[in-house]
Amino acid sequence: MAVVGAGVTGLATAYLLARSRTAMRLEVFEAEAQVGGKARSTVRDGYTVDWGPNGFLAGVPDTIELVRDLGLAGELQPASPAARRRYLYHDGGLRPLPSTPQAFLVSEVVPPAGRLRAALEPALARRLAGGPREREESVHAFLARHFGATFAVALADVLVAGIAAGDARELSLDALFPRLRAMEQAHGSLVRALLAQQRDARRRDARQRRAAASGDDDAAGGPRRPAARLTSFRQGGMQRLLDALAQALPAPVRLATPVAALEHDGADPHPYALRLASGRREAFDDVVIATPAPAAAALLRPLAPAAADALAAIPYAGVRVFGLGFDRIDVPCALDGFGFLAPRGQGVRSLGVLWTSTLYPAHAPAGKVLLRVLAGGRHDPEMLELPHDAALAAVRRDLRLSMGITAAPEFLESVIWAQAIPQYTLGHARRLRAIEEGLSGLPGVHLAGNAYRGVGVNASVREARRVAQALTGAGRA
């Protein structure tokens, strides 16, 4: 068994396969000199900077079960309660991002006419139900249909910026946010659906509090599950999970070992072979390709050109990430939240700024502030082409406008991800079907990764379980 790619999905797939089939030969190939892909972290001078995902939702079982199985539960670092509030940079200042339907009705981030139209959404639900619910919609079109064009212009790109760094007019609601489609189908009105969720959450919390007080797990339907709270690791950031997965494998990951080609010979007892960049050829029964879609397309083109074409059609957003450390006295801002997003047209070029030292206090030295700035994305690809000094100057200007920071950072690291986040653009489901059909003649080849069925760590681990289940019939650790 070969796994190509040692990011979150590749390592989790290899780990689950090794747990299920302990006697098999398992090799993991990684082109880079370290594991992690874009989920790697840097630890220096007391600062911990994540260059990709900055955690996972612990209330979702996919990753937390893996963490427990690896023996890492005692190292978890839940996000600080102080980071619950989120902001938008709007009209020259940081404004709280509404977190409930009720809050939107008084929020200044949407113009008054837009708030009025959004307030009418429950009353208009019957008419909205006659909309194109059977047809794929963009995120922007879906929000405009429910809440009006003014609301969609103000917030659609904000909704996708922190997840996909994409363009809401291009991204498929059905592929990126299937839960919103399900809420519409169940309730008609999204506002009614969200209010129902709030009621259910309050009732569930009340039951769990009563159960905890009485010691009766059954009263709450079983032991209390961890909250769906963003969570990382006290030491090492998300790199800790990647390193633990790699160390738990039966053989070391073969780092700095690019795979140049995938070959197939049905007459061979081991029908698939990887041709390494060094020229070495190694044969396997099954191959899991856990690379970004463009690299998977290149490997598959000689054997499955139709699948390769569909893979190559999955676009990516490039992102430039800065980790900046400051003395607390040099940051004249309350830092009482997660950070902020910056909609287009507000004078700030960056996509957003994460207040990492508020989110995870252990990721910065005492008395210091760690900020993670994301820039670029589908709306600003030129940001990736700027020389380092020019890009840093643009980011520092954004911090001066939004947070009043004029001091130079005392800690500075940065990275450019040319293919940072796959874009689930309109037609994504059709592309996935074309990939599956194109691979039908290669039963031992499996694709895995965040380019297909969900971005984020939990989605990557869920993808790993799906592939492990397909290969062994036992995808759970």
Q: Estimate the global geometry from the Cα principal axes.
A: globular
Q: What strand order characterises the main sheet?
A: 8-7-15-16-17-14-18
**So what's the CATH class of the largest domain?**
Alpha Beta
Q: Count the domains.
A: 3
Question: What is the count of DSSP helices, taking H or I runs of 4+ residues?
Answer: 17
The largest sheet, given as strand count, sense and whether it forms a barrel, is: 7 strands, mixed
Query: From the coordinates shown, what is the CATH architecture of the largest domain?
Result: 3-Layer(bba) Sandwich
Strand content: 15-25%
Percent range of helical residues: 25-40%
Instruction: Find the CATH superfamily of the largest domain.
Output: FAD/NAD(P)-binding domain
Low-pLDDT sequence parts: 217-226
Q: What is the name of the CATH topology of the largest domain?
A: FAD/NAD(P)-binding domain
Class from helix and strand fractions: alpha+beta
Gyration radius, in Å: 23 Å
Number of strands: 19
Spatial gap, N to C terminus: 18 Å
